[in-house]
Structures
1.
Amino acid sequence: MGSSHAGFVALVGRPNVGKSTLLNQVLGQKIAIATPRPQTTRNRILGVKNYPKEHTQLVLVDTPGLHRPAGRGRSRLNQFMVGEALAALTEVDGLVVIIECPLPAELKKQSEKPFQLDGGNSFIIDELKRVKKPAILVLNKVDLIRDKRLLLPMLDGFGKAYGWTVVIPISAKTGDGLAELEREMIKLLPEGDPLYPEEMITDRAERWLGAELIREQVFILTKQEIPYSVAISIDDWNERPAKDRNVANVMVSATIHVEKEAQKKIVVGEGGRMVREIGTRARQEISNLLGCPVHLKLFVRVDEGWTGKPSVLRDLGYERD
Ligand SMILES: Nc1nc2c(ncn2[C@@H]2O[C@H](COP(=O)(O)OP(=O)(O)OP(=O)(O)O)[C@@H](O)[C@H]2O)c(=O)[nH]1
Ligand SMILES: [Mg+2]
């Protein structure tokens, strides 16, 4: 029998490149929320996968997208998010840096001039050179590009920017290329015994995952600055065991915090329509997660300017200790 391996690999990259989608796809279970909007993920989240035949445990770390914190009230929350991602960089055994395929029209334009790293990605590469960790370059969303030759200048340019252990094109959505990526991630792990119990899939509690599933629906259903002005707290989470003819179920009450009265009006919606829609969809998602019926009560509350207030940020889990 060979020796066992275990360790951490962080998924890093600019917002919206598909880090959380990739985490879920590798685990075969949805633990991280993923939406079409950038800056969906706000905290680090661990996903644990065991490979019994290889005596290996891979602990993936999903991180917020790396971006330059900008803007007025949001900056403190955004600084926290970037801090979470940068901290992950120094604490893991290896990294997967994810970039995404540009849309076909943009790609065509790019291929006509010499390749140049954009600001966001050159920031990431600079950080990578600072921590000097082994890293895999992943080009995600290849399902969007029919003519794969158009990707070559980009792959070549990124390829030269760091000493990658390997460069892999994937589609986190369809699962294309993931088997190879998993084999390569495993190679980055040091020898060692499993770090977490075999049955553990994430470090986050069900309550926290539930709050995220509510936030996911806000991100999907509301527009403009609303998603970025919203946080969720769970006020009550009561598991009720099966009794008589009732199956086991969970009663959840949660608050949607917004920054302004005008935002509350939008999140509540006409006659409560919006908050009802958020509730219906989130309840279904939480029920899928727990595998039992869920009752969900939502409240909407104004916490004036919470994205810039340390004490409120702390209560909502957005301050580092
Ligand atoms: N077509 C296609 N879309 C993808 C793929 N991977 C992710 N997406 C989509 O890209 C969007 C962003 O995905 P996320 O997984 O939330 O991206 P992220 O990198 O975690 O984003 P942040 O948390 O905001 O940094 C979602 O709409 C996904 O469905 C892919 O392989 N192909
Ligand atoms: Mg994410």
2.
Amino acid sequence: MLTAIRGSLVWFRDDPFLTSGDDALVHVDDGLLVCRDGKISAVGDYGRLVRGLPPGVTVVHHRDKLILPGLISGHVHYVQTRIIAAYGRQLLEWLNASVYPEEERFADPSYARAVAALFCDELLRNGTTSALVNCATYPESVDALFEESVGRGMRLAAGKVLMDRNAPPELLDASPEQGYEESRKLIEKWHGVGRSLYAITPRFAVACTSEMLRVAGALWREHPGTLVQAHLAENRQEVAQVAELFPKYRDYVDVYEQHELLGPGAVFAHAVHLSKREWKRLHRTGSGVAHCPTSNLFLGSGLFSMRRATKPGRRVLVGLGSDVGGGTSLSLLQTASEAYKVGALDDCPMDGVKLFYLATLGAAKAMRLDGIIGSLEPGNEADFIVLDPAATPLLATRTARAESIDDLLFALAVMGDDRTVLATYLNGQLAHERDTFPRPEPAHRHDKR
Ligand SMILES: [Zn+2]
């Protein structure tokens, strides 16, 4: 199955936090993206590539639109979709008042399935083609999500939350052994099915005993290729509580490290309140971080420091996360906009190249999935989005006077939302379209050249 898409192509070859934006960004103004059997088989200048297309192939032309790799969310909770925008509390109170009562409802498979369907559709509507997702404690909640994501052809990484203390009893694993067994069965059932990846998910050190964290480390060792996701240093009260619960450890990162939970493929959400030592350990171990600015602001958690995270010599792999329901939008464009503002407060204003890098290749690298997703390079899976710089009158006015591709990307990141996403493709196939869609161009049009 061959798909050919024409438009202005944008992706990343390098990390703009380490090199210049010009070196990191690839922009082909009139480009062609050719997808075969779900993967990108060729990318480059339209005029050059179109001649190599087999006869009869229709080219879909997204005129005056930008085509980028599908966006990747490094951290989100599908089981919190319905409690987004819960007023008035900070993390620990908010978990007890809003989150845990809702997550208890995911013991019901039909409830879980309905929310999972809504969640997957919303991701696609927002141009998010991959995500690292927390489910609830119940294995049924994981089944529901993967059933929906596999049906749509999405590459999601997800797992059941492991927790055995400091939450309502209905939501806790009965024992670390039970958490281990249920996770192991879910890995066997789902890891590698369709494009699914299993993510071992100790919720956070407050809700896990040392035995439970050890179980999580053992699961990861025993199942190469799985991911690890957990929360880290989101809120000051939480950090203090971890210090009380784990008095023998140097700090929060040390708690995870001593339980063998750091390394490539481990992604920690938030990382707002970290010491220099902790940043160093994340760097040395190749662990990833998901920056979740809308959540950090909404829950009054604090300001993530991109400056520290990307310090030369100890660069940590960072992606963006929507963190719904603490986050206030599933749009990674809105997330990027808040990331810019948080960066501005930290004397680290990020340009359009950096913001889109974080939402694509940056997140893929943090999840150890670069080379598979997050890029338009041949060989990558053909997940991509079409962004409309004229999606609203105000956006059209602003982007019409964009001075460069970087400036155009910046305007899209700061002002964009779900309306900006004209189309989302999975495996080279259209998975979502906003409304108006260009007509395919008959192949013979290029034969006349
Ligand atoms: Zn979270």
